[in-house]
Specification:
The complex is a heterodimer of chains A (about 525) and B (about 325). Chain A has about 525 residues and is of the alpha+beta class. Chain A is about 30% helix and about 20% strand. Chain A contains 16 helices and 21 strands. In chain A, strands 1, 8, 9, 10, 11, 12, 13, 14, 15, 16 and 17 form an eleven-stranded mixed beta sheet that branches. In chain A, helix 10 packs antiparallel against helix 12. The longest helix of chain A has 19 residues. With about 325 residues, chain B is mainly α. In chain B, strands 1-2 form a two-stranded antiparallel sheet. Chain B is built from 13 helices and two strands, in the order ααααββααααααααα. The chains are: A alpha+beta (about 525), B mainly alpha (about 325).
Amino acid sequence: MERRKFLSYSAMIGAAAAIPRINPDFAFSKAFAQENRPLMFLSAENITGNWDPTAHTTLSQTNIEGFVMGFLTRAPMRPDDPDKVIYELATEINEIDAFTLEIKLREGVTFHDGKPFKAEDVKATFEYGAQPDRPKQVYPGPTDTFEVTTPDDYTVIIDTSKGGYGASLFIFLASYLPMLSAQDIAEGPNGVLSQRLNGTGPFKFVEQRGNDTVMEAFPEYFRGAPIVPGVTFAFVGDGTTRMLSLMSGQADVIERLEPEQVETLEAEDDIKLSRLVSVENKYLFFRCSKPPFDDWRVRKAAAHAIDRTILWDVMGSAGEPSSNWISPIKFGYIDLESYPEYDPDECQRLLAEAGYPGGEGLPELEYLTSTGFYPKTKEYGEVITALLQEQGFPVRLNVMEVAAWNERLYDRPGGGPGHMVDCGWSTGSPEPDLVLRTHFHSSSKRICGIVDPEIDAALDEERNAPSLEARRESLQTNLMPLLAQKVPALSLFTSVLIHGMRSNVDGLFIYPDGVADASEATLS
Amino acid sequence: MFVVRFLARRLFQGVIIVFLVSALIFTLLRVVPGDPVRLMAGGMAPEALIEQIATDMGLRDPIYVQFARYMSGVAQGDLGQSFVRPASGAALGGASFDDTTRSERAEVLTLIAETAPMTIQLALLAMIFALIIAIPIGIWAGLNPGRWPDRIALYLSSIFVSLPNFWLGIVLVLLLSVKLQLVPAIGYDGFAYTILPAFVLAIEIAPFIIRALSVSVASVMSQNFIAIAAVRGLTQTQIVFRHALKNSAVPLLNLLGVQFSMLLGGVLVIEFIFDYPGLGLLTINAVLQRDFPLIQGIAIVTAAAFVLINIFVDLIATVIDPRLDY
């Protein structure tokens, strides 16, 4: 044998002997699911960079808080029992009289930093969350309109007599505002509150690693340590990427599925879907502080030009028909008889009455909408544009990516950009004022910019009602019909939250605002 | 001495190129619609506050003043701070205007330093895959010009170059990751997550390498010294691998240099589809968020990398073929 061939052959034999020793795990070990690993949740929305729960209204961050924070109560808000309340950090909530509420607290609960949960934390949270400068602007009223006292470590008394509104408003608020530590609040908005989450929930905030929020199970959780060792909540901007990730088993749960994705995932054996009528309505907000929508007749004419049944067809399984400015699972919902429905004759009559017969004389109207976050916005935006144009509204649809739309979303002095804006609003509580007062009271008027003393008075009347029943009546017979008359925004439909999850995920409870309770979740 | 003169001249040219790219990007970013201060401050911020923040940050100064200020920072290695990203590097959405805690923002250089190695890893693996695919096909075609191996290489290249990378990426994820469960695809949690996006990129760039190699090999193989080599008693393997390939290497090397540079700056779609945390994903999010300093920083680093890679490639080419003069 030649020397060269001998060397070649011996090298080949050596290589062949080494092959079984190569560890293929180098490339493939971390690829797929094993049990006893964190739950991977993919989100469609990014976060704000400030962990203070009162500093934002961003849904994805609210979802993260759902894993980490504790609430006095939780509201499952299922359509068959929308007013149901589950006690969490509270054990009892009693209405002593119209202006006094007593809350009894659970004992033996600790925050993730070790501080015991007590009445002082509830007092500090309510007082801090209701401060007028907190962006989340938790209602019913600012801090100086109520008083919180703590007779002992596990009893909280709320007195709203100063504000003149019913203390019962705090009942629904209890499931909306996460309980913060009084120690954290003492440092103020620039303290530790903004740097990390510290709650009493089943999972402890560990760190923000790029777009991943890393949480681990809190062994001292008062209902018992969670079964999964943690939750990783990741922002993945592309819907197809989220779906592929779920199908490949790299993600366990994904949110905000498009109707087409639902069809694809329904065909997969190892995927299951969760459909929930949500607390979110989608609105067409009119800029009420500038012409021509500063005239209610033009707004109402536009509402009568829109055939919402076509939009519901476009939305398919991602939309639920509703005829009110709040979701059917919110307190006080009613299918309003006077809700402005498609009526071309009435549209033309109102336009003529407002001085724009057949739309003549109307300026070009810009309709702002986004693409990439809410399902089907572009598609139904085109339908609305065509319907409005049919009635003589010179509408131009402007479809923007989310950041650009977000930049133009809110009202500004003199009216915000454009004339109509597409947006949804979701709050994890049956409390209707978190939507109605936020958008239609002149002290807030987030997007539509409406200033109308009659609407203000109607909002104050329902808020100040002495009991829940009186409040329901005020909402249904005074405020809501008034909104149907003035139409500061048109509610198009109620969103249906569709989550996709691996079939081995059990025990995950999803609330209608998208918040998930994974305290009893398992990955079988 | 040649190397020193070469480097001095090319680096000087490179600095001018990077400067011009910076000036162009800087100007373009400031004339496109979308106010970054509105994004930073939040949708609910009053106009007066927007103007105050913009003035404080110098964003209402003339563009040339802003550019001079920016470039003086760059000269000292300071690419500035991201407008919106916090130190954790998370992509952000809207927040409140009076949110002072958001001032703790990430350094652009840090964000780039964290993501660039991921993209380099992706680009290198893509290049390796592309070479594995392209070298045998390219040589085979080059050795048989005008015959069926050459035609197969042409058809294959046409197919590869016609496949949209986003479509191929999704199809391969469905096939290899979802159905066959062979490789993971979305995000990054280990080296395995680089394989599939690298393969998609490799399919995209392989046709160029195949074409360059087949033409180059065919050209070399028709030269006299190859014909004489057989007379000298060399085997076909020796002729191809020791002589033909070495002489075909210079055009290939130039192509690889350009392709690699383009990979560093051109992996946007692939990184977005695969949620791969590299420079491409960082760029897309920066653009969506109007994060000017980050976009500028990425543009400067990418331009500099392009220049340096090309200088390096030219230097290597002169080593392979001393007749070359750059």
